[in-house]
């Protein structure tokens, strides 16, 4: 059995990898929202965040690997959407560097025109991405929603909310809309917040 990362943000980063093209899919900034949403969802599922007046508040003490609970604890009450947007670009770099340090990916740096730094990501073992796809596919089409693994349910909900076409192309999102809604309900408020932030992102880009 292929081992996959334990953390939901790490899983979502790898699910955004396009195995056919051998590179990260171009998400237009949405990946950061998905990863922040994944961190929030994981904390909510573990009870370290609770939903209070339409926003997250600290719950049961525990690990806070990305410092999200600390940010929320130090702030006045804010919406889930605010915390999805907060430091979303930095979140991509943080998760990428974590995966590289743990040996899941290889990151190659190069300069465009000798000036601009870019990073090319390579997944070391494609079977890891395929295993994550398998978990998401099973959550979408398999057993009753109540029996789906919570991280697989969250992966589908976040992939749909963030429009990650490597996992759920638009046609699949439409076809399985009811099932995605059910899986999103199991995930807590974070997936819905990602969906609203992404819609606002599209609206701003089209204005």
From TrEMBL:
UniProt keyword Isomerase, yes or no: no
GO terms under cellular component: cytoplasm; endomembrane system
GO molecular function annotations of the record: phosphatidylinositol-4-phosphate binding
Pfam families given in the database record: GPP34 (PF05719)
Gene3D superfamilies: yeast vps74-n-term truncation variant domain like
Location relative to the cell: Golgi apparatus membrane
Keyword S-adenosyl-L-methionine on entry: no
Record key words, sorted: Golgi apparatus, Lipid-binding, Membrane
Topology relative to the membrane: Peripheral membrane protein
Protein name: GPP34 family phosphoprotein
């Amino acid at each position: 059995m292929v081992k996959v990362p334990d953390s939901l943000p790490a899983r979502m980063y790898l699910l955004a990898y396009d195995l056919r093209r051998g590179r990260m899919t171009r998400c237009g900034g949405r990946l950061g929202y998905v990863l922040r949403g994944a961190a929030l969802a994981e904390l909510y599922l573990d009870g370290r965040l609770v939903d209070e007046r339409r926003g997250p508040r600290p719950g049961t003490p525990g690990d806070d690997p990305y410092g999200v609970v600390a940010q929320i604890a130090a702030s006045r009450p804010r919406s889930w959407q605010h915390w999805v947007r907060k430091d979303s670009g930095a979140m991509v770099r943080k998760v990428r560097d974590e995966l590289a340090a743990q040996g899941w990916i290889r990151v190659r740096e190069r300069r465009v025109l000798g000036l601009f730094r870019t990073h090319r990501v390579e997944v070391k073992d494609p079977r890891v991405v395929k295993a994550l796809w398998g978990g998401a596919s099973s959550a979408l089409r398999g057993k009753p929603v109540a029996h789906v693994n919570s991280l697989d349910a969250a992966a589908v909900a976040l992939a749909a909310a963030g429009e990650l076409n490597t996992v759920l192309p638009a046609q699949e999102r439409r076809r399985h809309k009811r099932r995605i809604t059910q899986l999103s309900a199991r995930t807590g408020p974070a997936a819905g917040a990602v969906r609203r932030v992404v819609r606002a992102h599209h609206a701003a880009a089209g204005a």
